[in-house]
Design goal:
The structure holds two protein chains of two kinds. By secondary structure, chain A is mainly beta. Chain A has two helices and 13 strands. In chain B, strand 7 and strand 8 form a beta hairpin. The chains are: A mainly beta, B alpha+beta.
């Protein structure tokens, strides 16, 4: 718990993140139905671990992340510690409007909430524009770019299997702020939530690792 | 007619002073001193405890629950090992005011004085085992009794702790004073139940069980 204040500070620092230029050439602009980026699920339970470093000191936080999707397309994300105490309970309605239902005082920092909100929205495919710019990389990967808040999401897909996406970057045209890696690769026209996700926050220097547990899941 | 109304009123008053939980009628205990003494006496004879537990986190708004399970060990005077085995591996060892957590391959040593919620829940667990549950200055306690169990309700005093927990209910067997259930109620209506089973007292437990290698 004492590390939560460090994370808040790190999230603040992350707003001025490191450059990681994309090597790409503009190709075409298309429109993708926003629903194709949204996974279909009822419930999913993830083991969640956060590892980072602040002022030469390492920190570690862990718990369980419970994702629940309702029939009316409303979604909830509840993070609790191993003993069951809720740290936060976030929700989105059918129009992807975000709401904080509950959060403990130590985590109730706007920058921290915005960071988690965006991280979850990328996994859940919420508030991502269907406006697509198709690009290529040096490695001949197919790269599609979608507007997301003040930046863009870059979906990396191998040329020989464009239905799979192993990596999503969030950033500007010049900088990567956050990198999502999926193992195994996520299907672009998602039908289910990914099994494992690694979310690397550059500059802020912390990594969130999510591993889907067998219990409390659809599958 | 007046007599009937009076009888009905008396019945309602009697019913309101009792709690019906899990099919058992719990009546408020006027004198907790005897129970407090019995718990202390029992704790003097119990040097170690080993138990299985199932934990269920009930989320009111989501109408859903998250289940986990594991092993619980206690060794007098102040050692506790909580080992989650399903659906994830997580080990928490408390000894001498310090907590060691093993999460996968990662071992974290922390002083629980920095974590109010964890400190309180762990202290309550420790108090249950040591028979000192009524002596905790951080909580206001009330107790009830049914034919087979005691129920002790602990309400936190501090505002800091109240943001995590509204109260904790402890269920204790009358026959052997073993804790059968611990319910942690949260302000948002969620609650986490820890149900203990296959409890064995005074079995041989090595000190090594309370160390992380």
């Amino acid at each position: 718990m004492r590390y939560l204040k460090y994370i808040s500070l790190l999230v603040f620092l992350a707003s001025c993140s490191t450059p990681k230029p994309f090597a790409k050439a503009k190709m075409t602009t298309t429109a993708m139905p926003e629903s194709t980026l949204k996974p279909t699920f009822t419930r999913a339970l993830y083991r969640c671990k956060v590892n980072g470093k602040f002022l030469f000191k390492r920190f570690h936080i862990s718990g369980l992340l419970f994702l629940r999707n309702f029939g009316d397309s409303a979604t909830r994300a509840v993070f609790q510690n191993e003993m069951g105490i809720t740290y936060f309970d976030f929700g989105w309605n059918a129009e992807d409007s975000f709401q904080v239902f509950h959060i403990i005082d130590k985590m109730n920092k706007p920058a921290l909430i915005r960071t988690f909100q965006k991280d979850f929205e990328i996994i859940l495919g919420k508030n991502i524009s269907g406006e697509t710019v198709n690009l290529t990389t040096k490695n001949n990967e197919q790269l599609s770019r979608h507007p997301f808040y003040q930046g863009y999401l870059y979906y990396y897909r191998p040329e020989n299997n464009p239905a799979e996406c192993a990596q999503i970057d969030y950033g500007t045209e010049k900088k990567t702020l956050v990198q999502f890696r999926f193992q195994p690769a996520m299907q672009v026209h998602q039908t289910r939530l990914p099994d494992t996700v690694s979310i690397k926050h550059y500059k802020a220097g912390f990594v969130i690792q999510l591993h889907k547990l067998k219990q409390n899941n659809d599958d | 007619m007046k007599k009937q109304t009076l009888t009905l009123l008396c019945c309602l008053l009697m019913a309101s002073s009792q709690t019906l939980l899990f099919g058992q009628t719990f009546k408020p205990m006027a004198n907790i001193a005897t129970l407090a003494e019995q718990l202390k006496d029992n704790a003097r004879t119990v040097k170690s405890i080993a138990s299985d537990f199932v934990q269920e986190k009930h989320m009111k708004m989501l109408q859903d629950k998250v289940k986990s399970a594991g092993k619980f060990y206690f060794l007098q005077p102040d050692k506790i090992r909580i080992e989650y085995t399903s659906p994830f591996q997580y080990l928490l060892i408390m000894a001498g005011g310090n907590v060691v957590i093993k999460d996968g391959k990662k071992t974290t040593r922390m002083n629980i004085r920095n974590n109010k919620a964890m400190q309180s829940v762990n202290q309550v667990l420790m108090d249950c085992m040591r028979g000192s549950v009524f002596s905790n200055p951080d909580f206001i306690s009330k107790s009830w009794a049914s034919a087979t169990q005691y129920r002790i309700n602990l309400v936190p005093k501090s505002a800091d702790l109240k943001q995590y927990l509204t109260d904790i209910d402890i269920y204790i067997n009358k026959s052997d004073f073993n804790v059968t259930k611990l319910i942690m109620n949260e302000p948002n209506g969620d609650h986490t139940d820890m149900m203990f089973s296959h409890t064995k007292n005074n079995i041989s437990l090595s000190d090594a069980l309370f160390k992380v290698h």
